[in-house]
Amino acid sequence: MQGFRKHMRYISFFMALLMAAVTVGAAPAAAGVVGTGELLTEQRVELDRQALLDMLEREEVKAKLADMGVTQEQVEQRIQNLTPTELASFEQQLAEAPVGEDVVGIIVLFLLVFIITDMLCATNIFSFINCIR
Amino acid sequence: MLRTASLVLAVLLAGCATQPQWPAVAVGDANVRLDRSVRLDRSVQLDQVPFHPQERYQCGPASLAMMLNSRGMNRNPDDLKELVYLPGRQGSLQVELVAAARSHDLLVYPLDGTLETLLTEVAAGNPVLVMQNLRLSWWPQWHFAVVIGFDADDRRIILHTDTREAHRETVEVFMATWSRAGNWAVVMMPPDEVPATAKPVDYLMAASDLESTNRFDAANQAYQTAEQVWPDQPAAVLGQGNIAYSRQDWAAASRHYQRLTDRFPDVAAGWNNLAHALAHQGCGVSARDAAACAAQLNPDRFGSTPDLAAAPASESCPVIRCPVPAAD
């Protein structure tokens, strides 16, 4: 046990050195301080979310959602709860859409995917929809 | 028979080719110095972009040299070859061109890939570095060129490209080759200037790229520029504080962070960073108070009390007052 402890001390020392070296190399701002990029990434997520909410204001989208029997408020609430990853995947789908393609279709498709997977209880992103099971 | 066939073929091909729409009016924020009403349905050619003919496969160094020259930097393609040319690949990578520009203290701002934005930047006097794929998507021939002008009447894009100076390319050819390269385009700005089409968060991202590659003077200048153009952006102030912090200028860092918490009391990061700077200054009590403000605003991120060095208190320490939480 004693020997193991002694060993650990060397390993810890080495790890501490290694981590210090890695930290100094990778992050210009010292540990504990929030980096500028981190704040910007958060802001970008909020911008994406707002862009998605703005799209809901379009008449065609409203009509499509009404057809599907989902109210705008419900969808808005869902968008507020989307994670950064989900938002990013949506942004990417929009970006990859050919110019001039029906944006409404993509928005509705995106929402549909989440709503349907939710109805099947594959995810619990859309908690406002009751599970089929 | 042959004539009928070729006619059918011509009709089919015409059906495939999309006609790019020539934009009429410049895009951009009203708060950027370019006038919103700048017309794009005219002809523009930037004279301050010198031309370097490329040597074999070396469009990267040549294009970068032209971009740097246009900003008054005296570099030629031979100097830059070492920086950005990969002999094994017979070419240059985008990231290398971007990194090399940053190492010259230029802010590299990626454009959104639309023709409108591209033309707006050129009209505002900023040459644009573009990537093209001159062959097919499945058999690419990548190429870098510099857009220096356009002519709306003739529907031409004017480029310094390969060995041709001010080559006038039809917009159809340009759009086809550009879109096969993902519409990649960047402008390279001195850090005291903002691209005509810049959006605040994107510009600040580009500035923070300068910061994270340790170009502190340029990054600081860019943050100051951003703070002037977009006073509502907390990251512009945070960035200046973070640079001072990296330089271990605790007093300056504290001043910036305090400016941030005064103007944007809801940004928890400001209080957190202020706490760290104050601790280094020897203001243990103020530091703990500031850390508590950060924890109050965002318990998940700043809930655990940081281990702040408790140095002897000095008299010049500020009194910290947390923002009163807004009622929902």
From TrEMBL, chain A:
Name of the protein described by the UniProt record: PA2779 family protein
Lineage start: Bacteria, Pseudomonadati, Pseudomonadota, Gammaproteobacteria, Pseudomonadales
Pfam families xrefs: DUF6627
Entries under InterPro entries matching the protein: PA2779-like (IPR046735), UCP029543 (IPR016924)
Signal peptide: 1-26
Keywords: Membrane, Signal, Transmembrane, Transmembrane helix
NCBIfam families reported in the protein's UniProt record: PA2779_fam
Membrane-crossing segments per the record: 103-129
